[in-house]
Each structure stands twice: as C-alpha cells, then as structure tokens.
Design a protein that fits this description.
146 residues; alpha+beta; Lipocalin; globular
C-alpha cells in the first residue's frame, strides 16, 4: 500500500510540474512571436512581435530614404491579432492570422481582400538604429501598415 501511495504521489508531482511549466498562452503566441519582413511595391516593413505582447514596426514607403518606427502593444487570441500604438491609438484594423514556421499572413477582418504576407527574417541592425521615431497620431509620417 505504501508503494502504491508513493507512486501516486510521484505521478501527481510530475503532472503538477509539467502543468506549471506549460502556459497555453505561450503556445498561442508562438504563432506570431518573432521578427518578420514584408515587402510590397509601395512598402518595406519589418515588425517584431515580442513574447511580452509588445511590438516594434519599422516602415519605409516607396523609394523614400526615411524609415519610421512605431511601437505599442498587441493581443492575440489564437486567431485574431489586434493592437494599439504607444499613443493608445488602435491599429487601423484587426487581422486574422495564418502562420507557419517561416511565414505570417495577416488578413484584414473588415476587408478580407487585404492581406500582408510576412517572411521570418531578423531585423537588420541598420534598420534598428537608423529610423525616425513616430507615434500614429503624428501627421508628418506615413500611416503605419497595421
């Protein structure tokens, strides 16, 4: 009987330890966390989604020389990605997320024809150090893609 109690106790402790180390929210965030690069005919965008639910977005429009940096916070429920900029202005839309190990597609909830496909790519150090800091409310920079 003592041996059975010991085994049950060991199994219970192992189950508790495993449960304490796995946070389901971490698995959900794995779909978006990372550094991503999007290029279109008019935009060159890098975005980093961190595990602490903050983001940095670096955006360059057309052939312009300036790259603009926006920061803020995001929420992801496993399907829909939303966010606010550092000045508490919400993103232009909510986005459904489709992801794989090396790609992230954000599709506008209000306009499903609009989507952006990002490829996993480390943000170059030059981009992280040469930018114009912006808040969404400033009128002298381009509207951010999100």
């Amino acid at each position: 009987m003592k041996n059975l109690f010991t085994r049950i106790l060991i199994v219970a402790m192992a189950a508790f330890a495993f449960a304490a180390c796995t946070n389901p929210e971490d698995k959900i965030l794995d779909k978006v966390v990372g550094e991503w690069h999007y290029v279109s005919s008019t935009e060159d965008v890098y975005v980093a989604f961190s595990a602490d639910c903050t983001f940095e977005l670096y955006q360059k429009m057309g052939d312009g020389l300036l790259r603009y940096r926006y920061t803020g916070a995001y929420e992801f429920d496993g399907t829909v990605l939303t966010g606010v900029y550092a000045d508490y202005t919400p993103w232009a839309d909510e986005y459904t997320v489709t992801s794989s190990a090396n790609s992230l597609t954000l599709t506008s909830v209000s306009n499903p024809q609009y989507s952006m496909k990002y490829e996993r790519e480390q943000i170059p150090e030059e981009v992280k150090t040469h930018y114009v800091p912006m808040t969404k409310g400033q009128s002298d920079g381009p509207a951010p893609v999100l």
